[in-house]
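Quick one: co-fold with pyridoxal-5'-phosphate.
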Amino acid sequence: MMTGQEQALLRDNIAHVKARAAEAAVRAGRRPEEITLVAATKMNSAERVRFAVENGITVCGENRVQELMEKYEQSAYGDADLQFIGTLQTNKVKYLIGKVSLIQSVGSLRLAQAINKEAAKRGIRQNVLLEVNIGKESAKSGFLPEELLEALEKMPGFGNLSVRGLMAIPPVAPHKGNNLYYFHEMHQLFIDISTKKYDNVCMACLSMGMTNDFEDAISCGSTMIRVGTAIFGARDYGKPVQGIV
Ligand SMILES: *Cc1c(COP(=O)(O)O)cnc(C)c1O
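Sure, here it is.
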């Protein structure tokens, strides 16, 4: 059970992150409503997630299928929109279809194809973002920037997908401001693609910015930030999820 103190802290953190995001938007000459806050809920118990949803969080992003399923069954997400933001194996796609409104992390044509196939079986169209490996890191998934146009040209063949935009996780940055370069690059790609016309593709969403850099991301045109630590506190990877209260 969460203590009153833990509840108060979580409530304050949510308000604080929203205020910081709104200020960053205004500084950039943008409207705060242009930016969607996705709470990155990994490693947090169903109770904590439920409390966050009852206290101002309207979108939750999970990054492991198993964890999402467990919390889903425990009704953690309530009325919030549920999205998937993590690395996804093609054999697990079937568990997500029908549960998540958006899969943010489509980084290969193979995965796009698997999602398309599963969505077709259920007779739905699945909203997705294409993940871009903007730092060209070998350990990371995602399309390389130079592969993106070719991938977009294949999208008309995926009638049960709707590509809503782009997502990126830039390299881990040792100093504040380090990722501005990547955020600018992402925004440029986003704008370039917006001017082109592909079936099943609409550049509505640019998902970038996490706890350490969401204000920089907003200054560069992000429309969706994914924030974990600044809302829920540091994650303790040593404890099982249900142990965290
Ligand atoms: C955990 C996670 C985040 C949030 O990270 P923080 O630094 O804790 O804000 C954002 N995006 C993805 C894909 C994540 O897995």
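If it helps, The chain has a mean pLDDT of 95.
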